[in-house]
Amino acid sequence: xxxxxxxxxxxxxxxxxxxxxxxxxxxxxxxxxxxxxxxxxxxxxxxxxxxxxxxxxxxxxxxxxxxxxxxxxxxxxxxxxxxxxxxxxxxxxxxxxxxxxxxxxxxxxxxxxxxxxxxxxxxxxxxxxxxxxxxxxxxxxxxxxxxxxxxxxxxxxxxxxxxxxxxxxxxxxxxxxxxxxxxxxxxxxxxxxxxxx
Length: 197
Description:
Elements: H1 2-11, H2 13-18, H3 30-48, E1 52-55, E2 60-62, E3 68-70, E4 78-84, E5 87-93, E6 107-119, H4 122-126, E7 135-146, E8 149-156, E9 159-167, E10 172-181, E11 187-196
Antiparallel strand pairs: 1-4, 2-3, 4-5, 6-7, 6-11, 7-8, 8-9, 9-10, 10-11
């Protein structure tokens, strides 16, 4: 019996290959089976995984003069990279930046403390004091301004008073005004320099 079966397999190899598939089954070639498995895995990945995105950073810099600089515009366009289950896609585009900056007021009331160093010429000229007695220093408050001109109240270790000033730089200026010396109550002209905090 075994010899008869072996002879049949040798004589009829097609029948032996067909016997590899069970009755009622569909045979799939190995290459097609690999393709079906790859499609099923890809579908499972697309349903269960989320895409990942990589974005170029955008840096915005504002300097002391109010100028705005930023990255992302040509020649460095904004780029986006997407990866998802073996798929990759790149995209790019230009960045448009609109910067709104509040302009400083050109006039009005404000609270701007200053330190000042000044001189009271009336003390040595009209009141018999030494030249050193005319030196005064103290604190000043700039409470009103029109562009670079300002009005100040001052309190020093020799006098107090009111004056007008001009800003030479952002933190340095000149001041000229009227003051009254302490104790002696002498009227004086106060001239000097101030330093804003």
